[in-house]
Structures are given as C-alpha cells and as structure tokens.
Amino acid sequence: MPEPIPRPRSIIDISRLDTGSTFRGLAYAALKRAICAMDIYDQPQEIRLDERRLSQRLGVSRTPIREAMTLLEQEGFVRTRPRRGIFVVRKSKREIVEMITVMAGLESMAARLAAERAGKSEIAGLRRLMTEFRTGNDADRLAEYSDANIAFHQAIIRMSGCALLAEMTENLFIHMRAIRKITIHQDNRAERSVLDHFRIIEALEVRDPELAERLARDHALGLAAHVEQHGDFLDAAASIDVVPAEAGTHR
Amino acid sequence: MPEPIPRPRSIIDISRLDTGSTFRGLAYAALKRAICAMDIYDQPQEIRLDERRLSQRLGVSRTPIREAMTLLEQEGFVRTRPRRGIFVVRKSKREIVEMITVMAGLESMAARLAAERAGKSEIAGLRRLMTEFRTGNDADRLAEYSDANIAFHQAIIRMSGCALLAEMTENLFIHMRAIRKITIHQDNRAERSVLDHFRIIEALEVRDPELAERLARDHALGLAAHVEQHGDFLDAAASIDVVPAEAGTHR
DNA sequence: CCGGACGCTCTGGTATACCATATACCTAGG
DNA sequence: CCTAGGTATATGGTATACCAGAGCGTCCGG
Description:
2 copies of one chain form a homodimer. Chain A is mainly alpha-helical.
C-alpha cells in the first residue's frame, strides 16, 4: 500500500490548541511569577494575599485561585492560616541553610552525572557561558551575575540528563536567587564563585566524576556556611510578621 | 452563655488538632494512604479515581477532594485528564531510576551530615535496629525486610538533622517501597543491602563523613543500576495504558 | 476615664449548581 | 452488515452561596 492516505495533516497544519491551559494553571503561573518578581526578603512586612481580591483582579472565580494557592502552599511559597489570611512565606535562616544543603546534595550528584554523560558541546557551552561573563566582569554587571550564576547551576543540572533533578531543584533556585542577590555583595563571593565554577568546568572536561561531585558539593556547602555566618538578617526580618499585613485594609 | 473559659489551653497542650481537621487534609491523607496501600506495580491496568464517588464515600463534597487531588497530582501520584478521569500514575523504569539517583544524592548528603552531627545514641540505635533484624533474618521475614530497609534509610535522613531532607525524600520513599518489594527478591539483594548498611553504620561510628557519604551514594547507585538492568517489567506494565491513549492520529 | 463583653465584618473552608466536552451507544443510510 | 453522525451520559472545570471563626471597633457599666 503506497500511501493511500498521504498525510492529510500536512494539508491543514492545525496547531495543537492548548486544552491544557486551565484557569487553575493560569492562576498558578501568574501568582508564582508575581511572588518571584517581588523580592521577598526586601519587603519589610509580611505580604498578605486575598482570595476574593485576586479572583476579581484575575477575572476568575475563587475556585481556581484556591487550587493554585493549594499548590503554592505545598511548594512552600505561601502559608494559609484559616480565617486569618494567606501570607507569602519568608524563609528563616535555618531553612535557607537547609535548602542550600539539599541543593549541595542534588547538585553534586548532577555534577557527577554530567561528568559521565554530558556531551562535549554541552561542556564547551558551559565554559563559554562563564567566559563571556568573565570578560564583562565590571562592578556594574555584578548585579546580573546573580542570574548568570543561576544559569550556570541550572546548566549543570540539565547536563546531568536527569529530569527529576531539574524538577526538584526548580523551586530551590527561586529562593536561592533571592538570597544570592544579597550574599553576592559580601566578602568577594562573586569572584570566589567564578573561580569555583571554572574548577567545576575543568573537572567536567577531564571527565572526573568524583572531582566534579566534590567541587560542586564544596561550592554549595561553602555558600551554606556563609549564610550560616552572615545570614542573620533573614531571621531579623522574619520577626516582623507579627504585624498585621496592610493594617489599613479595614474600610 | 458568658461562661468564662478557664483557659484549657494552658493545661492540656492540644495544639495539633486543627492540622488534620480540615477536610482537604483529611481527604489528602486518606487518598494518599489508599494509593500507597495498593501495590501500584502489581495492578495490571490503570486505576481510575472518581471525584464524585470518592466524595460520597468519604462523606464530604467534591471541593476538598479536588484540592487533595491537586496536591496528589503535583506530588506525582495521580494524573488528571480533563473530561476523562483521574488516574493513578505508574512510574516508568526511567523515572524510577531517576528517583533512586536523586535519592542517592540526598541520602549521601544526609549520611555526611549524620557522620558529623548525629548523637552517639542515635548511631547506636541505628546499629541496634539493623542487628535486631539480622538475628531474625529468616527467609520468612524477608518480606518485612522491605520495611526495615526503609526504616534504616529514613533513620539516616533523620539523623542528618535536616528537616528539608526528610521532607523531600518522603515521597521518594513511597515509590521506593513499592519497588523494593520486588527487587529485594532478586539477586541476593537483601543480604548485600544488609552488608552495605553495616558498613555505613561503621562509617558513622568512626565519624568519617567522606566515607559515609560515599558508601551511602554507592549503595543507592547500586540499586539504581540494578533497576536499570532488571526493571524492564516496569515499562512493560506501563505500556498498557498507552493503548487507550493512542495519540489520536485520526478519529 | 477605663475595661471587658458584644457584635460587625472579613476570611478561608465547604457544599452545590452549572458548564463544556470526551466517550459510548444508538440510529439511519449506504 | 457496516459505517457515519447524532445524542445521552459521565466527568472534570468553574462559579457561587453559605458557614464558622478570628479581629477589631464600639458601647455600656463601673
């Protein structure tokens, strides 16, 4: 049978209409983006979210909002206290340190796998990413190093070829990003970080899983130690949350 | 009825009553338990859940059920397909291997921390746990080794003192448990496992973080390799659900 | 003038009604 | 007898109404 029906699809190339876009998913994305956009740790007071107000603003009913909130709560971005409100969570120093510790475990495993399995071109791309940044390492661009930093770490994760690693670190990165913006300015951490990164790249290039793993782990644990030592402002800010958010909301 | 309440709070410390009191939490717990109870990988066909039926059976409305489903879906236990149903997810071999890989990363970090920070009595307790099991290591009790195994690994996690590690591995353990029940019977894995465990305990006792980390990692990666090699039955079973899905080339 | 009890209001939790569509079955036409 | 199209039903998604409890202001009594 030489093509009785020769690809009828090719005639009308109907794009896949996204049946997956549901209000819940939309609300989830919007809220998560909003939360990530605000620099949580710069805000002086706790931020409260109101289901009804959000549903009005987004133009949907409370139901999808609530389901999105349920997701965000499980991910640790908000905390809902019955009959009191939904609050954006600010992590304590201890929690941040734990996050970085977990990150260290996952990232070192990713580095190990990357050293074993990553393609040559991927590693080359990683080096290029960091080299490009290095050339433009002015003080002006220090701010955007935070993003380059995240990009580097995410690249390592991706190069491990383990989708679950990427999935499990996704939310960690979000919190990490907020923290980096602050710690990056302390103690010459940016330069040290760049150095560490190049060492990791070298380990990948020579295909040394043990070394790559160790370097990645120590790099992350170094950050953990740094936060442990200099991150007290995190807890200091968190103590403010006793203040009712947006005190003037009543009428 | 202006009866002055004599502050029962200060007398009895019943604080965690409201934790499970919400219907959503209740439904979530019930559903998760039910899903864990059934051996997912023994079931021949996909299992479908019906919101309305469940709400009737549990005696609550659909709303809390849906929110619980939302959580379970994010955790990867179910998958809901609009207008078709909610299905219990069966992980593919690849996904299981990735889970074990992630586990390796987290658990090796936990072992490292445990070697550094765990109390002497905790380590002693861990040894006791395994020793007790060893004495009763009949073939009859092989079945319950699966649970002892999980208990060992969870103990390591707990001894790390990192709550987030425990939280992030919680769901991994659930899937792992189902897998262990099968792999444990293959290839003398039970005995090897016990040996590995004792080596890890020894590393903790001599406070050698590097060694503990390496042993824990290799132990887990060994399981990953084993599943990679002998876990094809996972995909075989999973392929059943592909039939009705059938990407719809026509129709 | 001060304090405590009452009650208003706002908020998340729950129940229920309705909607759009995937699936299955049924019917009519060849 | 077989296939195409219509229709009934089932199922997840969404909107809305109501409930109970926590804050906070107010009012009355001392």
